[in-house]
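User: Hello, beginner here. Can you help me understand these amino acid letters and fold codes? It all follows right here:
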Amino acid sequence: MQEPDILLIYQLGKVGSSTVYATLKQIYGSERLIHLHFLSDRFKRRAAGLAKYEWHLGQIKRVERLRNENPSSRIKIISLVREPIGRNVSDLFQNPQNYLEKGESLGSTHVDKLIRIYKQKNSYGYTLNWFDNEFRPYTGVDVYQHSFDHSQGFAIFSQQEFDILIIKMESLNSCYKRAFSEFLNLELTELTISNESNSKDTSQLSKQLKSRIRFSEDELSEAYSSKYAQHFYRDDISLLTKKWLKL
């Protein structure tokens, strides 16, 4: 096993990256392994001086310091993706403050009201445009110009100083051994599960909402006709549509 120069777990939120980070941290430590969602100049301008982004800005500074101190290092990026409706529904339970009114809490809100609130406030913009708005401005890499192997659930490619592994979250359990062997020359026997929603107090409410929420054909089209969904989930869209469609 060769230790990577700089290893970034860099992706949008709610895609299973905490498990990947927890697994690799046990092996590599945290000096050259950094977990973050933002690196672009666009984000830094938006977040400057705002306390709620302090952690994110601190992670960005860590990456900048490592790159300045190691200018010839290869940068290995692991980025996960998740089907957009499932990701956004999970975001409601991770970030309820973005959906609920002041003083409201998940535990005191009926599932039917949560569904109404979610549909009123949900936007797919962050999920569907993350690679174009965040990843490409920082790396210069357009992931949509690189093929994605749907049968194995991951893709590996290199461009400029970056080596990139993209994993479909839904395939993580079945493909992680091969993916990390090919990308990091690392033989893993198991993943360290972290931030699993079933362990949280709201898990029962989350299950209820996911079993009851359904979407119109127009709502599904917005999510699944997107460049993001067509590139990473082309072979799954029929089943996903069946799962979420309002009958």
